[in-house]
């Protein structure tokens, strides 16, 4: 009679896995069969858990909290991945905002509400422009443009 063996996948850091294998080998009741090093398509739940572990590797270790009832590993992994995606999205927005702030810094510090007040009460329209410095020399610019300054190979203008 052939008995189908039970198969398990062990996950963890190399240090923990190596320690587990050493202890299991010393007991002598488990046989480890090495698998060929082919990339296999893992189930989505396992991919999520592995990705969550990869994310957490970069974080400092905090004190562990026991929960009642215990939270399933896949649900924890999904929450970690979701939080990671939110942080990445916010970091990208932050990077874009810093780039935009650096780009318009030459125009100075002014209040948009003051600018809106001047536009409505003074019946004037403000427009802000930037142009590569190399192109600004080649182009015949209208005299209505007021040169504000130059920075990062750009010339900045305002028109009222």
Structure report:
- The chain is mainly α.
- The chain is 48% helix and 11% strand.
- It has five helices and three strands, in the order ααααβαββ.
- The chain has a three-stranded antiparallel β-sheet.
- Strand 2 (146-151) and strand 3 form a beta hairpin.
- Helix 2 crosses helix 3 (73-104).
- The longest helix has 32 residues, at 73-104.
- The N and C termini lie far apart (93 Å).
- The model has no long low-confidence stretch (mean pLDDT 81).
Broad structural category = mainly alpha
Oligomer: single chain
Mean pLDDT: 81
Spatial sequence of strands, sheet with the most strands: 1-3-2
Percent in helix:
40-55%
Percentage beta strand = 5-15%
Largest sheet: 3 strands, antiparallel
- As residue ranges, the low-confidence spans are none
Order of helices and strands: HHHHEHEE
How far is it from the N-terminal to the C-terminal residue, by CA? 93 Å
Q: Any idea what the radius of gyration is? A: 31 Å
Q: With helices defined by DSSP (H or I, 4 residues minimum), what is the helix count?
A: 5
Query: What global shape is seen?
Result: elongated
